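Methyltransferase
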Amino acid sequence: MTQQKRIDSQLGRPFRRSGIGRRPAREYGVWSQRRQGGGTSFRQGVKGYVEEIKKVLPLTSGSIRTVLDVGCGVASFGASLMDYNILTMSIAPRDKHVAQVQLALERGLPAMLGVLSTHRLPYPSRSFDMVHCFRCLVPWTKYESGTIAVWRKPTNHIHCIQKLKLWKSTRLCVGSDPDASWYKKMETCITPLLNVTDIHAISGGALGKWPKRLMTTPPRIKSDRIKGITANTFNEDIKFFAAALMKFPAWVMNVVPYNAKENTLGVVFERGLIGTYMDWCEPFSTYPRTYDLIHAYNLFSMYKDKCDIVDILLEMHWIFCRHGSAIIRDHVGIIVKVKGIADKIRWNAKIFHSGPFHPEKILLVDNSDE
Ligand SMILES: C[S@@+](CC[C@H](N)C(=O)[O-])C[C@H]1O[C@@H](n2cnc3c(N)ncnc32)[C@H](O)[C@@H]1O
């Protein structure tokens, strides 16, 4: 098949795959099992429901910034939390509730296909401040009969180990990387928190309150757990890019290749932002026409020996909203190749130079009608 034919045939491809699954993380878990008929419904509306939760959890304090909503329906819960400056990642599979995640994304809310099942969800350990599950149809073994249950994760494992001795409950996992969660099977053990010596210490380091948290050096960087990124690099290069984006009425899904040299996804969450692991040689866990802008820095260089540029560009084409745009920064040789394929997909793409002798170029794709 010629490259153009392959592009044309794949442009008309049908919906692909659902997400893979994993366990809840950082702080609070809210499980609710009110059974009141099918479909999405909150007895006093979602606002009344959030008001109820506010009575027991500090939603307005800035200490809960990121939430994972498991079995999100049309993401009304996540939409409602926006009033509190809380960013919710809503997940649901593609099941009899059909295109709920598509609807959420079309409403402008962060959402992904995802199912809590046998695999870890594509996020690192200790990523979300709160996990929520309202009639999410996950067969929990406990709390099935109550209307609402709130569980708070311990701040370290000293008390946990003490309690385990007493309760003889599930063992702590040994030897598996807590941040690895790409095609990683869940195990019946509790992922241990980082070691501390003081029972009052917070494992992994304390996080500031939102919005201060965004600009504070994340604990994973402060403690040198990310190769190649120091507190200085963070302060000089990284901090202000995110801050610049915060001015706009947009949210960013920070996508980190699962096998990137530096696994920075934990840092993203520590800053109070959201994201996911991804393998660009596979489809993204979303629906067609769901993102307005794709920003890719050195992505094509990273994947050049792993899969075809055409496949990645077709995936991006599938993800774009109707007038989707892209900013692609890469080595000149790669940018020239990407531009050739972008023309075949009939993207409106232009190369911009970073300076006459600069090895990096920028490809700007603007598919809007203006
Ligand atoms: C009854 S709806 C409730 C939707 C929403 N939480 C609400 O109350 O408005 C059940 C939701 O759980 C999702 N779901 C079912 N099994 C799931 C699983 N194993 N993991 C994640 N979500 C699941 C469904 O796709 C659907 O979004």
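thats it. DSSP finds twelve helices and twelve strands in the chain. Residues 212-366 form a domain with the Rossmann fold fold (CATH 3.40.50.150). bye
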